[in-house]
Specification:
It contains 10 helices and 8 strands. The chain is an alpha/beta fold. α1 runs parallel beside α2 and α1 packs parallel to α10. The structure holds phosphoenolpyruvate. The site of phosphoenolpyruvate (PEP) has 13 residues, from β8.
């Protein structure tokens, strides 16, 4: 079986301005720059990406975007293309549930973004996850399998892909999935990948996201199909985020 390097990725969402973002990035680099055995990524808001990327240049902390356009250029007001990001980021989150729910992004659009990112040498961190009503109906597995399959439509570069299982009910609620639930669902994600690309299933990293913190990260990362975490709230504090990185480095 392939060895999968764990990933800790921080999604700052619409938090931090340029100055506080720089401070946060530098704090994380100071505390976690020397930690090995884990891929460390911060995803600041677009306006801070250039300064954060400059501050982290030469460090082991990578920079990601929180979104990316599937279009190359032109009349797409407010959008940011892969070519604009290419020199600044290594990763881009696509299909976060907030974009799906609040901005109506479909899995077809998410798949287009994932393909555009990979074509530009940017690794997509592709998010999927069920909401509470789906879970209560007992349909979480089939929902996530279908959503992931649709969101992977046209994806062929399996070396440039990270999947993040993020149950909507666990995001920002302080109520993380149990490690058993998270393991069950990341296994479903891996099965979907196996059905589409048998050779890639053991090497694609599948993360868990949803209220991860220093109190639950060790147990979550101990699960065989969980290769790291996509982190919101806890990524906004350098010390807390660095504890997650340390846990992943030691896992
Ligand atoms: C997220 O938004 O991707 C996330 C996981 O948020 P939180 O860690 O705050 O639940």
């Amino acid at each position: 079986m392939a060895t999968r390097t764990p990933v800790i990725a921080g999604n700052w969402k619409m938090n931090t301005d340029v100055e506080s973002g720089l401070k946060l990035a530098k704090g994380i680099a100071e505390l976690s720059g020397a930690v090995g055995g884990v891929d460390k990524i911060v995803c600041p808001p677009f306006v801070s990406i250039a300064s954060v990327a400059q501050a982290l240049a030469g460090s082991s902390i990578q920079v990601g975007a929180q979104n990316v356009s599937a279009n190359t250029d032109g009349a797409f007001t407010g959008e940011v293309s892969t070519s604009m990001l290419q020199s600044l980021v290594s990763h881009a989150i696509v299909g976060h549930s907030e974009r799906r729910v609040l901005y109506g992004e479909t899995s077809v659009q998410v798949a287009e973004k994932a393909v555009a990112a990979a074509n530009a040498g940017i690794t997509p961190v592709l998010c999927i996850g069920e909401d509470l009503s789906v879970r209560k109906l007992g349909n979480a597995e089939s929902f996530v399998a279908a959503q992931l399959e649709a969101s992977l439509s046209g994806v062929t570069d399996w070396d440039s892909l990270i999947v993040a299982y993020e149950p909507v009910w666990a995001i920002g609620t302080g109520e993380a999935a149990t490690s058993d639930q998270a393991q069950e669902m990341t296994t479903v994600c891996r099965q979907v990948i196996r059905s589409l690309a048998p050779n890639a299933a053991d090497s694609v990293r599948v993360l868990y996201g949803g209220s991860v913190n220093s109190g639950n990260v060790v147990e979550l990362l101990a699960q065989p199909d969980i290769d790291g975490a996509l982190v919101g709230g806890a990524s906004l504090k350098a010390e807390e985020f660095s504890k997650l990185i340390a846990a992943a480095g030691a896992s």
